[in-house]
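#struct-help
A.M.: can someone run this one for me? Single chain, 677 residues.
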Amino acid sequence: MRIITLAGAALNTTPLDWENNQRVILGAIDSARQRGAMLLCLPELCITGYGCEDAFFMPSVRRMARRVLRDLLPATRGMVVSFGLPVMHQSALFNAACLVVDGQIAGFVAKRHLAGEGLHYEPRWFKPWPQGVRSEIELDGAEYPIGDISFRIGRAGDRIHLGFEICEDAWVATRPGAALARKGADIIFNPSASHFAFQKLQTRKGFVIEGSRAFGVTYVYSNLLGNEAGRAIYDGGVLIASGGTLLAAGPRLGLELFSVCETPVDIDATRQARARLASFEPALATDHSVVDVAFDWSAAATPAAPLHPPPPGLSDARLHGAWEHGPDVKEEEFARAVSLALFDYLRKSRSSGFVVSLSGGADSSACCALAWIMAKRAWTELGPKELAQRLRLDAEPASLEALMPTLLRTIYQSTRNSSQVTSDAARSLASGVHSRHLEFDVDGLVASYIALGEQAVGRPLSWERDDLALQNIQARARGPSAWIVTNLAGALLLTTSNRSEAAVGYATMDGDTCGGLAPLGGIDKAFLRHWLRWMESTGPQGVGPLLELRAVNVQQPTAELRPSDRHQTDENDLMPYDVLEAIEDAAIGQKQSPAEVLATLRARVNGSLADDPWRALNDENLKLWITRFFRLFCRNQWKRERYAPSFHLDDKNLDPKTWCRFPILSGGFERELRELQ
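D.P.: on it. C-alpha cells below:
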C-alpha cells in the first residue's frame, strides 16, 4: 500500500493581474499543504490568466510570467505543483504546464490540442505541440525539457509517474491519456480553463471518470473560477477520480478566491487495477519523453507550516451545498453563475455598484433580482469584513440592508404611456431589494424631442404614421438620466435586454441598450419568465424567494411605449416567447434553414398534448413567425455588434465577438423565405 494525498485547486484569477494571481496561487498552495497534499494541480494559464487575448504576444507579458513563476518556486518546497503559463520556443508560442518539484522546475508540458471553437480562440495565439516530440527550452540561463513529456518523480524504487492532459486534450478523440497509460502513468493532471455552460458538469465528470477507468490512473481535474475576463464564467469544480470512481469533487460557482479539493490515493491499488485491464498494453521500449526527477516522498508526507498568509478562504462546509442535487439545477445554476459573474465584474472593474433603469417589467426586474442574489450570497459566504475588502468599501457595512442602496440604484422613468401597474411593481421590487430608488418623469423630455422632430419634417407626428419613431424616442429619452445617475455614483449601468430581444432586434439602440454590461444577454425570455416565477416562489438555496416579484410576474410583458388604448404587448409585436425561443434554437443553435425550422416546429405541434398551447398553432402561424424571425435576425446584426458584453451561459449565445458570427449585410434568406410560403 502506497498512500499519497493529491489535490486540485480552483482559482479566481484575472488577466495580467500579477500580484492578485500570485496571492491566490500562494493561498491555494498553502491550503493544499495544510491539508497534507503532496501533489497539486493548478488551472491552465493561471499565472497570466487565461483571457489575455492578444496580450499573449507581448514579450513583456511572457517575461513577467517567468518572474512570477520564479517567485512562486520557494512555496513548493516539499511538494509537486503544476503552474500554467505561456512560453516562447523557437519563435512559436505554446500554452504550457510547468511542473515544479520541491522548489525546482522539472520541465514544461506543451498543450497538444488547442481550443478553437465558440468562446475559445487559442489557435490565434498558440501553436499545437506535435505528438511524441521532446525538445529543450532555455529560460533564464538554464535548460529544461519541453514538449510531449511526462515525469517519474522520486527515487529508484519509489517513483510516481505523472502525465498531463491540458484542458482540450481531454475533450478530443485522440486523448494523450492513452499514450500516458501505456507508459505506465499513475496520475494524470488536467489543468483547465473550462467555461461554464448549463449541464456541462456532466460532460466533465464523464471524461474525468472514464479517463481514470480506461487509462487505469488517478485523474485530477482543476479549473478556473469566476468571471475572469468579462464574458466567460468559470465554475471551478475540481474533480478527482481513480479507476472509474469519482473520489472527490470541489464546490462550483462559489465567491471564494480559491478552493482546494484533496483526497488520499493508494498508488499501488491503482497500478494493480491497471494490471488487471485486458486492454492495457505497456510501452516497453526506452522512452526519452519520460523525465526522471529526484524527490523524497517520505519527507513530503508531513504537512508543513504555511510559508505565506493565504487570502481569505472558506471552509468546505460553507462551500458544499445540496443545490446541485435538487430538482432546480438549471434555475440554481443561472442564479449562481450570473451573480458570481456580477460580483467579479463589479470588483474587477472597480465600480461602486450597479444602476438599473427599472421599468417594472420582467427584464429589468431580473437584473435587480440577480444583483440582490449577488449581494446576499456575498454577505453570507464572505461575511461583512471580507465583502468590504473585496469591494474596496470605506467601512464595514452594518447590515445587508444598509449596504444595498450603495450596491444598487434603481430608476423608474415614466412617460404619459406608463401605467400605475408598472410604477407600483417597480417601487415594490426596489423596496424588496433595498435599492436606492429614484422616480423621474421624462415626459417633458419626450415632448421636446417630438417637437424637434415635427419641426424637422414640417408636420405633426402621429401614431398611425410615425409609430416606430414615437416609440423609440421614449426609450432614448431615458438614457441620459440613467447615465448621469451612473456617472455620479461611479457605478456600472446594466443593460436589461435579453437574448430573445437581441435575436430579433426588439430593443432601442441608445435606449434600453444603454449600459456597460448585459447580464441577461445570454438567456432567452421564455426561460427568464420561468426563472422569475421560481424566484418569487423558491429562489436559490441559502438565498430564498423574492416575494415582491409577484407584481412583475402577473403582468404581460410590454414595452409600454404606445398609448394604453393600443394594448401593446411584446408577444403581439413579435410572437409567443416560447415559439421565439424554439425558432431561435433551431435557426441559430442548430443552423437550420427556414424550411427545416418549419419541419422542426411542425413536429413539436404534432407531438404536443391536447391542452398544450402549441396544439392550437397551424402552418399559417408558424410560417408567419419563422419569416418574421429570419428577417428581423438578419436586419439587426448591427445591433448585436453594438450590445454591451454579456455572459456566456449555453451554446445558443448570440454574441458576435465570441460565439455567433453573422454578416451585418446579407441577402436575408429571401429566396428561402419565398419558398417557405
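A.M.: thanks! The longest helix spans residues 362-390.
D.P.: also worth noting: The chain has a mean pLDDT of 92.
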